[in-house]
């Protein structure tokens, strides 16, 4: 890790407040400092879990924007039914789900939504920091409700890769309504402890 990235990481770690953390999580996406130095590999790093529970399994979410609860609760119900796990909301202790305009990746590609993470990808230890939804996504994006369903899989299984077929968990999910389909659920349950396997179709 280059020194400038290390200092950005340090800056993020010393930030004590939830808002600072959110700002840092946003910063991380573009700087690549979402990967931490190996020496620190020992569970979620200090200072990163102050805005929400930072369990290895992402089960609790916080609707942190107007109208988000309306799409978050049905999405969590659907994932709960599909996985047999209890996914819930909390007013402040969950992984925040926020609105954010213009989710540019810095290379001219605009995301519909994304889920910045922090951790040690090489060791399979990664935690979701926040789910960001564009309230006015670019053309070709699904509705924010469908994007949220997709991003929740990233939050539950941060090291899971997209599936290479038409699916809720393809890199491009398309504009239509999506079931929690078998390929998406299969990919999730490879790294998330599913208690059931109930795809919606
Ligand atoms: Zn994705």
**Major sheet: arrangement of strands:** 2-1-3-9-6
Question: What is the CATH first-level class name of the largest domain?
Answer: Alpha Beta
> What are the segments in which pLDDT stays under 50 over at least 5 consecutive residues?
1-33
Total tally of structural domains: 2
Going by CATH, what is the homologous superfamily of the largest domain? Collagenase (Catalytic Domain)
Radius of gyration, rounded?
Answer: 16 Å
Mean pLDDT: 79
Query: Helix count, per DSSP?
Result: 5
Strand residues, percent: 5-15%
CATH topology of the largest domain: Collagenase (Catalytic Domain)
* Quantity of strands, as a count: 9
> What is the name of the CATH architecture of the largest domain?
3-Layer(aba) Sandwich
SSE order, one letter for each helix or strand: HHEHEEEEEEEEHH
């Amino acid at each position: 890790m280059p020194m400038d990235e290390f200092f950005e990481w340090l800056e993020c770690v010393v930030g004590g407040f939830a808002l600072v953390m959110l700002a840092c999580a946003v910063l991380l996406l573009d700087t690549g400092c979402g990967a931490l130095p190996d020496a620190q590999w020992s569970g979620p790093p200090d200072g990163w879990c102050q805005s929400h529970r930072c369990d290895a399994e992402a089960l609790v979410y916080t609707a942190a924007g107007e109208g988000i609860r309306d799409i978050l609760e049905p999405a969590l119900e659907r994932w709960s039914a599909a996985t047999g796990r209890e996914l819930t909301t909390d007013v402040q202790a969950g992984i925040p789900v926020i609105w954010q305009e213009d989710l540019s990746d810095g290379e001219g590609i605009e995301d519909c939504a994304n889920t910045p993470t922090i951790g040690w990808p090489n060791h399979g230890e990664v935690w979701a920091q926040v789910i960001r939804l564009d309230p006015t996504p670019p053309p070709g994006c699904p509705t924010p409700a469908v994007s949220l369903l997709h991003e929740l899989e990233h939050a539950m299984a941060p090291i899971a890769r997209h599936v290479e077929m038409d699916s809720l968990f393809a890199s491009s999910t398309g504009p239509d309504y999506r079931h929690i389909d078998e390929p998406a659920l299969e990919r999730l349950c490879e790294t998330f402890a599913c208690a059931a396997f109930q795809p919606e179709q």
